[in-house]
Design goal:
Length: about 450
């Protein structure tokens, strides 16, 4: 006998919306703390303002380290579990606990503990969420599903700093924290209502592919855009390249196909195009995490901007990427990934240097009392525009190559990666490089800002 409301509770639209809310919550939680962290450290925990940058670096690096370590075991156990509901609900409940601990933290130890819990739960939500999506959505619909869920994810990155900064300044600390707690409770309710399809997870993941967190980074905001989304960052001579997420990959040349000996991660990391995509993903997330670590304190100390203004600056950094996503998708459809991504990196380099100029007194026009503020705002908006050419290219490159390799090996042995396939491990592979960027970004930018200054830090990044 069917469960009550089975038809609408297992509907594709509800499944996609539920996963989308989960990704929104994960990226929202990561970015929410950006404008509010200095207040928590200096006002609530009574720490010396001169130590704020150091603790900010440590807290953001800690999140990346925890998520990086947690991703492989979470993916391993998820791939061995035919039902995703229990691990998904556990991840959401744990995230709620971690967020509550951060909100009520009365000591730096409790703040660290909450961040650790939040990092583990966020990684699990992303991996299990996309595994659930892959299990319940037909592969011919997977591209559209990814587009919708990635739009949710990018919305979380955009909304987090804006909402927290505005609520903190206008309505106070506790009112601000009701927003992420309400999002998590809504997500738990949606997951309890949602039912998975009766036909369990497929043993061979569909070639539509999936992607990880996040993105802000999580950069995690990646939107598939059509037939040429899998165009290579390297020349297309790789034996595993193919042009559509929704078509089966061609047979690979067996002389170049990796054997199953090294296991899933060893097999994928022997593919040059996977490594190229990983490098692009890693570098972009190092830069993105560096923004989060250094910009809020720089804006406060140089321009004396409060939390709401800081949140609006981050909105200006992310919003162009949302608006330009369809246009960049069309561009990639025509040209592939390699050329737009290369142009993006070339244009991004001088803008990163220019980011450090306002307030540095290097030039007369860059001083805060002259044109420094206008230059800074214009530069951040420009970085947001150019970043749309780079964001997501690495993750989708990894997806295209990895799914091709997976299908080739599983066509010969359906259980080569276990009874339930390796879809979660594919997500975790992207999650690993994403979170490695979240580790190195705060660590490098924070240490450089303390050792030299903001201007030289972003000059070196550029």
């Amino acid at each position: 006998m069917d469960a009550w409301g089975y038809r609408w509770r297992s509907a594709k639209s509800l499944i996609i919306t539920t996963i989308g809310i989960a990704l929104f919550a994960e990226t929202f939680l990561y970015s929410f703390i950006i404008p509010i962290l200095s207040y928590m450290l200096e006002v609530r925990l009574n720490l010396d303002p001169t130590e704020t940058q150091r603790y900010t670096t440590a807290l953001l690096t800690l999140h990346g380290v925890v998520a990086l370590v947690a991703a492989p075991p979470i993916a391993h156990f998820t791939d061995k579990t035919p039902n995703r509901k229990t691990p998904f609900l556990i991840s959401l409940a744990v995230s709620l606990v971690g967020t509550y601990l951060i909100a009520i933290a009365s000591s730096i130890r409790v703040l660290y503990l909450g961040r650790v819990i939040q990092g583990v739960a966020g990684s699990a939500s992303w991996i299990v969420g996309y595994a659930t999506l892959a299990d319940n959505i037909r592969k011919e619909d997977m591209g559209k599903a990814m587009g919708v869920t990635m739009a949710f994810s990018l919305s979380g990155i955009v909304a987090g700093p804006t909402i927290s900064g505005t609520l903190l300044q206008l309505l106070g600390y506790w009112t601000a924290w009701t927003a992420p707690l309400a999002v998590l409770v809504l997500n738990i309710i949606a997951r309890l209502v949602m039912l998975e399809k009766r036909d369990g997870p497929s043993s061979v993941p569909g070639p539509s592919g999936v992607t990880s967190s996040s993105s802000i980074n999580s950069q995690r905001a990646v939107k598939p855009q059509g037939q040429d989304e899998a165009s290579a960052l390297l020349p297309s001579s790789s034996s595993h390249g193919y042009s559509s997420f929704n078509s089966a990959p061609p047979k690979a040349d067996r002389s170049t196909c990796p054997n199953r000996g090294p296991g899933f991660y060893g097999t994928m990391l022997r593919e040059p195009r996977v490594l190229t995509g990983a490098a692009n993903l890693l570098l972009f997330n190092i830069i993105s995490a560096g923004f989060i670590t250094t910009l809020p304190l720089h804006m406060r100390s140089i321009f004396h901007w409060e939390s709401m203004t800081v949140g609006l600056i981050f909105l200006g950094l992310q919003l162009p990427q949302v608006i330009l996503s369809p246009l960049v998708g069309c561009l990639r459809d025509r040209l592939g990934y390699r050329y737009p991504t290369t142009v993006g990196w070339i244009l991004l380099a001088p803008l990163l240097w220019l980011l450090g100029v306002p307030g540095s007194n290097t030039f007369s026009w860059s001083r805060p009392e002259t044109h420094g503020k206008v230059t800074f705002v214009t530069c951040t908006a420009g970085i947001g525009v150019i970043s749309s050419l780079v964001r997501g290219a690495g993750a989708l490159q990894m997806i295209a190559t990895a799914t091709g390799v997976m299908h080739e090996l599983q066509s010969e042995d359906p259980t080569v990666f276990g009874d339930y396939g390796a879809s979660s491990r594919l997500f975790s592979l992207i999650e690993i490089f994403f979170n490695l960027g979240l580790v190195l970004g705060p660590l490098l930018s924070g240490l450089l800002v303390e050792t030299v200054n903001f201007y030289y830090t972003w000059g070196l990044f550029g």
